[in-house]
Design a protein that fits this description.
alpha+beta, Zf-an1 domain, 3 domains, two-stranded antiparallel sheet, flat, zinc-finger, repeat, Znf_AN1, metal-binding, zinc
Length: 156
């Protein structure tokens, strides 16, 4: 083993595989490899305490509704649509428009520029793709310092 201090061994006694990105079971708080990550795969004693996270999304307004049982998704969504998709029902992911002038793309997970701290679509995520003001200022200062050096280095 080249890196014995990195990673965690799977908590399952019959596995003990070294895993660099282990999954922590919400029931027993033990770390497991990908093969034994699900509570049923490692016979978790706290299986009944692990919440079953199921949600349904409205196909019209994209509202998300957490569900207690997987079978009641149709009932919840049908009732929501019958009520006219009221805006106060369910969770709606925040959708942000790309900050590049003229771009009309919207995303619930925009890429944030590390220089200007504005959100952009994937096409305009790089500094030179969205004409980042801060990047332009940095480039201008670099150009100015390079031109000063060129003036000092004039050989006659």
């Amino acid at each position: 083993m080249e890196f014995p201090d990195l990673g965690i061994q799977c908590a399952l006694k019959t596995c003990k595989q070294l895993d660099f990105l282990p999954f922590v079971c919400p029931g027993c708080d033990e770390a497991f490899c990908v093969k034994h990550a699900h509570p049923r795969q490692h016979e978790c004693p706290q299986t009944n305490d692990v919440p079953n996270r199921v949600a349904a999304m409205c196909p019209i307004c994209s509202a998300v509704f957490p569900l207690d049982r997987a079978g009641d998704a149709d009932e919840v969504i049908d009732g929501h649509i019958d009520r006219g998709c009221p805006p106060d029902e369910g969770f709606r992911p925040k959708v942000i428009a790309c900050a590049k002038d003229g771009c009309k793309k919207k995303s619930s997970d925009p890429v944030v520029c590390p220089l200007c701290h504005r959100g952009f679509c994937v096409k305009h995520r790089l500094e030179f793709d969205h004409e980042c003001e801060r990047n332009q200022a940095i480039l201008a200062s670099i150009r100015a310092s390079v031109s000063k050096r060129k003036r000092r280095c004039v050989v006659s």
